[in-house]
Amino acid sequence: DTGVSQNPRHKITKRGQNVTFRCDPISEHNRLYWYRQTLGQGPEFLTYFQNEAQLEKSRLLSDRFSAERPKGSFSTLEIQRTEQGDSAMYLCASSLGGADNSPLHFGNGTRLTVT
Amino acid sequence: ILNVEQSPQSLHVQEGDSTNFTCSFPSSNFYALHWYRWETAKSPEALFVMTLNGDEKKKGRISATLNTKEGYSYLYIKGSQPEDSATYLCAFKRGSYIPTFGRGTSLIVHP
């Protein structure tokens, strides 16, 4: 168990650029979640996958946000045409699906700064 | 959107003090309540997953209780130590839906 891995740890980009973040979950976990956290707030849910199926995406913040998990293993979160308001910590977590009382295991997050 | 409230927002205590904070959540269709500890520069770490009304869980000096009928959970830390300084998050789960987080309680333990 190597834990949940997120890359990059930090990303600084100019407004209008596209960015992509990667998350590698714990290998036997079939559920993968993306959250966003801004200063003074708790993690805000964005989307989640069970295996390769994206089961909830209505909470993605706008159509500039998209996520994929093509083979049910790693996932990517893309933000197109970034805005300064997108600056936040983006957290990925995984859990064992089917065991609904299983906790989330988080990565260290990707901190995005849009200038 | 579910409303999960945590209080207080922040707390400063002296080493050795015992402390507690609250997580409030909707009392209907309860499924699970999670507690996490989030230390600076680290990832959030699960402390407890609680599923039954009246549950009490303990891990070292930290314990938690759950009241699903009235919609609250308490987290207690006995004899706080500086290494307990962190943000403590609770997350409420309804059915098989996604865990919804509160804003957290930021605890600072002064030596």
Key traits:
heterodimer, A: 115 residues, 7-stranded mixed sheet, 4-stranded antiparallel sheet, globular, B: 111 residues, mainly beta, 5-stranded antiparallel sheet, 11 strands
Summarize the structure.
The complex is a heterodimer of chains A (115) and B (111). Chain A is an all-beta fold and 115 residues long.
Layout of helices and strands:
The complex is a heterodimer of chains A (115) and B (111).
Chain A: E1 5-7, E2 10-13, E3 19-24, E4 31-37, E5 44-50, E6 53-56, E7 65-68, E8 75-79, E9 88-95, E10 105-106, E11 110-114
Parallel strand pairs in A: 2-11
Antiparallel strand pairs in A: 1-3, 3-8, 4-5, 4-9, 5-6, 7-8, 9-10, 9-11
Chain B: E1 5-7, E2 10-14, E3 19-24, E4 30-38, E5 45-50, E6 56-59, E7 62-67, E8 72-77, E9 86-94, E10 100-101, E11 105-110
Parallel strand pairs in B: 2-11
Antiparallel strand pairs in B: 1-3, 3-8, 4-5, 4-9, 6-7, 7-8, 9-10, 9-11
Mean pLDDT across residues of chain A = 92
Count of alpha and pi helical runs of chain A? 0
Q: C-alpha Rg of chain B, in Å?
A: 13 Å
Distance between the termini of chain B: 40 Å
Largest interface comes to: A-B, 24 and 24 residues
Summarize the amount of helix of chain A as a percent range: under 10%
Relative strand content of chain A = over 45%
Q: Total helix count of chain B?
A: 0
Broad structural category of chain A: mainly beta
Largest sheet of chain B, if any? 6 strands, mixed
Number of E strands of chain A = 11
Assembly of the depicted chains: heterodimer
* Strand portion of chain B: over 45%
Mean pLDDT of chain B: 94
**Biggest pleated sheet of chain A:** 7 strands, mixed
Spans of chain A of at least 5 consecutive residues whose pLDDT stays below 50 are none
